[in-house]
Structures are given as structure tokens and as C-alpha cells.
Amino acid sequence: MILANIFVDMLDGATARAGNLSTAFGGILDHVSDRYGEAFILVGISLSGMVNPVWGTFALFGMLIASYTREAGEAIGRIENNAVGIVGRLHKLTIIIIGATLEYFLPGNYLLTYALIIVGLVSYITSIQRLLYAKRVLDSRKSRR
After folding, report:
1. Full-model pTM
2. Most buried among 24, 44, 102, 136, using CB within 10 Å?
3. What domains can be seen in the chain, in order of their start residue?
4. What is the pLDDT of residues 71-105, one digit of tens each?
């Protein structure tokens, strides 16, 4: 399901741009649907019993706040591109896929749990990086005035 989510996410934007059909609302809808997809994936993992739900929640909040920090910088701060940070959405989903695959083939080693912990940690770090970047950009605008 995660692979299907990634594929559809890449395909929808590329199709809209290729057909010159992209709109501002389409961009908003894409971002919102991405957050729903992340939530469904992490809630599903948490409810599966394969991990302690605390770690699924930790990863979910991390991913959501990293995304929100980007969006806030771009919308409120009018920063053209606030997508800075050590790990993007695709990388985080890849870490989850690897953790789930390893957990399937090597059960009982908590590899999916470790993957969720890593995703949560890098998400929180990414959020902090985005906040600091936004502050630098906004401060530099003030100093130019």
C-alpha cells in the first residue's frame, strides 16, 4: 500500500504538469491528501499490533509537523521553497518500507519499531531545520529594508 501511495503521489502531479492542468487548488489537495496518506499508513501500522502504538504516534506527529513547518514557511512566511532538511517524505516512507520488509522476514527483532523511531527523529530534526531556515530567510528580508 505504501508503494502504491508513493506511485500515485508521483503520478498525479507529473500528469497535471505534463497536461498543463495544474492549479493552486490541485496543489493544496495534493498536500492534504499526502497528509491523509501518511496518517492512514502510520495508524494502520500502529493498529496492526506489529509495533507499540506509541512509536507509530511518534512517527506520525513527526511527519505531520515537518510537513506543517514547510507549509507554514511557504504560506505564512511567503518563502518560495521551505523544503529543506535532512530527510524528505519519500525517504521517510522508504525507511518505513524497509523496516516493514525486514520485520516480515526477521520477525521479533523490532526492525519496524526502529524504522518508526528513525522516521520520527529525522522528522523532528527536519522540522527544526525548516524553522531555522525560515527564520534566516525572514530575518534577511528585514535587514534588506
Report:
1. 0.89
2. 102
3. 33-144 (1.20.120.1760)
4. 999 999 999 999 999 999 999 999 999 999 999 99
